[in-house]
Write a structure and sequence with these properties.
alpha+beta, six-stranded mixed sheet, 10 strands, disordered N terminus, about 190 residues, Glutaredoxin, two-stranded antiparallel ribbon
Length: about 190
């Protein structure tokens, strides 16, 4: 329980407790010893396989052009879906590593960073532009439907889906996605 407090943000409303809603854990939690600040040097997220094999939720969200899209529209390629928000410190800390991962796995895995900000493009577009990420785009879920669809109350939550839309694993909390642990998780899950 303490680890998730360090590793993730509750929903912005404050009404949802951070109870670690995901049942099983297969990974450890690292703490940097600096009061819980995620600096990319150690993993803080918790890896879960409790939902392994579950189909991706069939919910609409917005692509960078503002059009409705679903995860099933990407069938045929593995997806790394990251739910995040501009107000979530662990989300912000891991984004540069997600950008590097998107570059490293370009053509093999599609990385979707889907914002859960209620203000949508109004806050997300300038946020991403200011940071000048090369591979992250402003995918939006202003209704937070994806959070309910994946049965999580913690941001960030990141899920790797196989090419058929089935969950392989999820990470609850921030993580160094450009690090060795992430590479082992992804390569192991995809059988590479």
């Amino acid at each position: 329980m303490f680890a998730l407090v360090l590793g993730g943000c509750d929903r912005q409303s404050g009404d949802a407790p951070q109870d670690g809603g995901d049942k099983g854990v297969v990974g450890g939690v690292g703490a940097s010893g600096d009061g819980g600040r995620y600096d990319g040097s150690e993993t803080m997220g918790v890896v879960s396989i409790d939902y392994r094999g579950m189909a991706a939720p069939d919910l609409a969200f917005q692509n960078p052009e503002g059009e409705a899209i679903r995860l099933s529209d990407f069938e045929g390629q593995p997806l790394l879906v990251n739910l995040w928000a501009t107000w979530c410190a662990p989300c912000i800390a891991e984004m540069p590593t997600l950008d590097r991962l998107a570059e490293e796995y370009d053509g093999q895995i599609k990385v979707l960073t889907i914002s859960q900000d209620l203000q949508g493009a109004e806050v997300v577009t300038p946020f991403l532009a200011e940071r000048r990420f090369r591979h992250l785009e402003d995918w939006l879920d202003e209704d937070n439907a994806m959070m309910a669809g994946i049965e999580s109350q913690t941001l960030p939550t990141t899920i790797l889906y196989d090419a058929y839309g089935n969950e392989l694993f999820r990470v609850i909390g921030g993580m160094d996605w450009a690090g060795e642990r992430a590479e082992r998780l992804i390569e192991g899950a995809l059988g590479s």
